[in-house]
Design goal:
Layout lengths: L12 E2 L1 H17 L5 E12 L5 E12 H4 L6 E4 L2 E5 L3 H7 L3 E5 L3 E4 L1
Parallel strand pairs: 1-6, 2-5
Antiparallel strand pairs: 2-3, 4-5, 6-7
């Protein structure tokens, strides 16, 4: 996050399906990198394009910060349903999440309902 990035409070709910997915993902990532485990996930809105620049779609994106990286985003970490998150969105994207539920299914991955 850069100093000019506005910080938004989380304005969505986390479904149990998404919480369970994130817990399982965290366990997997921590097993793969035990010397620098995950400190927080990042939740953002992403845009997909093909190789010609044609828009393909948009959806929720998840990333993460390890403990060694977390010092750079410590003030932005928020907790929802026991999950530490960095909510990284623009004002326009903040409105997309507003009042909705972040859920998970095998068919759709993380998505808003």
């Amino acid at each position: 996050m850069s100093p000019e990035t506005e910080r938004f409070e989380i304005n969505f709910h986390l479904a149990e399906s998404a919480r369970q997915f994130l817990v399982a993902l965290r366990q997997q990532l921590d097993r793969e990198s035990p010397s620098d485990p995950l400190a927080a996930f990042s939740i953002s809105w992403g845009y997909e394009y093909d190789t010609t620049g044609k828009p393909l779609g948009e959806n929720v994106y998840v990333g993460g910060y390890t403990r060694s990286e977390a010092k750079d985003v410590k003030s932005a970490i928020q907790t929802v349903a026991g999950i530490d998150l960095v909510y990284f969105v623009t004002a326009k994207e903040y409105a997309i999440f507003g009042g909705r539920v972040l859920a998970y299914s095998k068919a759709r991955g993380l998505h808003l309902e």
